[in-house]
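Illustration 12: D-alanine--D-alanine ligase.
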Amino acid sequence: MSDLGHVLVLAGGLSYEREVSLRSGRRVSEVLRAVEVDVETRDADATLVPAVLADPPDAVFVTLHGGSGEDGAIRSVLELLGLPYVGADPDACRVAYDKPTAKAVIRSVGLHTPDSVALPKETFHDLGASAVLSRIIDRLGLPLFVKPARGGSALGASMVRTAEELPAAMVGCFAYGDTALIERYIEGVEVSVSVVDLGDGPEALPPVEIVADGGVYDYAARYTAGRTEFFAPARLTPDLIAACERTAVTAHNALGLRDLSRTDLIVDADGQCHFLEVNVAPGMTETSLFPMAVESAGRDLGTLCRGLLQAAAGRR
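Figure caption equivalent — predicted structure in token form:
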């Protein structure tokens, strides 16, 4: 573990999730200052490289969501600059950020994930939308959940309960990405499990249960106070909580992640955990799940973030 001089929090960027990223960056900066860390906050723009070359930080905390913040691109630049950072390396990010690829890895280690099909926009149009959508429903049934294959914050995601709703859901999805992931919807308890590793191996924080107003944890439900009820820890039996935690740690390891991650799961009526997706740069806003899990574990967010930065700086 290394002592910290000054650290850099990266927030903003140009993805659809810019506003959420700015809020995450502000929160991380505030809690780090509260534990006496010298923090500089910067956007990922044309001023970044000259600034860090002139005054290199001891470590970087990436709170960029979507796009370059989670697909490995900005982390590749940080490695070119020789700057240690909190979070997964570029190769692991690329795998985790692409949901169909991540699901394939998850299946390979024996975890459950909903049946799905990934459909690029070109295929959707070239083969005839009506015929393709009909076959999707024949194979996966209803209800379905449609979301972009890459991206977060539930942007472009929607529930499909009837065949008539599927075309509009696809159009909405393609507004945020070129490939749609159409999954069989699993009824059950939605939970999120955060994983942290301060150098002694990954450990799961208490699962957070999500009960969204209207039943769908969409963008508005995520970032509008009062739209969603959270229970931390989740209202599950000790055995189910342990199963969720094992699933999240297994996913973290299988995907080659590092330092922190957040895995979203559904626990069905039979007590089976189903992997939905993983986030390599969990939200840190006032309504985000990672800070709720930290608080539920009786830990201080600023102290934890400082520990993650110290572990990153130690890799220099």
